[in-house]
Amino acid sequence: MFRKLPNIIVTGTPGCGKTSHAELLCEQVKGLTHINVSEFAKNNDCIDGYDKERDSAIVDEDKLLDALEPLACKGGLVIDWHCCEIFPERWIDLVVVLRCNNTMLYNRLTKRGYKESKVRENVEVEIMQVLLTEAKDNYDENIVIELASEDVDSLDENVSRLAQWVENWVKDHPDGIDTSL
């Protein structure tokens, strides 16, 4: 099987604009499909429990990957989640790590109604560049990019840049990519 479109991960700390970026990119580039992993996991029976301390669902990663694999082989996914290391490198063509000013992130998460402990934990993750390090440790550094996500202007600039990247990928791979092992 050949896929004619790239698969992209949009990752970052909660509140940094992953969903906004993914949705806008899919609106602008024909053929791309937004996969909000949290929703996808709920809708595909990939939830294994609930973490009360973190106030979030526990995703069964094996079930999630099994459910996503047929879609990833077809290509054109924009995968939106707060982590990236679980996705096989062979699936992914670009990893976008969104970054946000710590004060702005704190305000966004507080506005969402997150518990103070969850706000603090996520701001610390952002300060320590945990998700950027995770991306660089698990994927070829040449496919990992870091983008600032702080306002509507940066959202528009980032999505325009990503749409251009997709266009270039398609030109560079006129026959697609073989997804067979």
Automatic annotation (TrEMBL):
Highest taxon, organism lineage: Eukaryota
UniProt keywords, alphabetically: ATP-binding, Cytoplasm, Kinase, Nucleotide-binding, Nucleus, Ribosome biogenesis, rRNA processing, Transferase
Residues given in the record as ATP binding sites: G15, G17, K18, T19, S20, R112
EC number of this enzyme: 2.7.4.3
GO cellular component: cytoplasm; nucleus
Main subcellular location: cytoplasm
Gene Ontology process terms (BP): ribosomal small subunit biogenesis; rRNA processing
Annotated stretches, region: NMPbind: 36-59
GO MF, any single term: ATP binding
Region (LID): 111-121
Catalytic activity of the protein: AMP + ATP = 2 ADP; ATP + H2O = ADP + phosphate + H(+)
Annotated compartments: Cytoplasm; Nucleus
Subunit structure: Interacts with small ribosomal subunit protein uS11. Not a structural component of 43S pre-ribosomes, but transiently interacts with them by binding to uS11.
Family: Belongs to the adenylate kinase family. AK6 subfamily.
Chain's role: Broad-specificity nucleoside monophosphate (NMP) kinase that catalyzes the reversible transfer of the terminal phosphate group between nucleoside triphosphates and monophosphates. Has also ATPase activity. Involved in the late cytoplasmic maturation steps of the 40S ribosomal particles, specifically 18S rRNA maturation. While NMP activity is not required for ribosome maturation, ATPase activity is. Associates transiently with small ribosomal subunit protein uS11. ATP hydrolysis breaks the interaction with uS11.
Protein name: Adenylate kinase isoenzyme 6 homolog
Organism: Ogataea philodendri
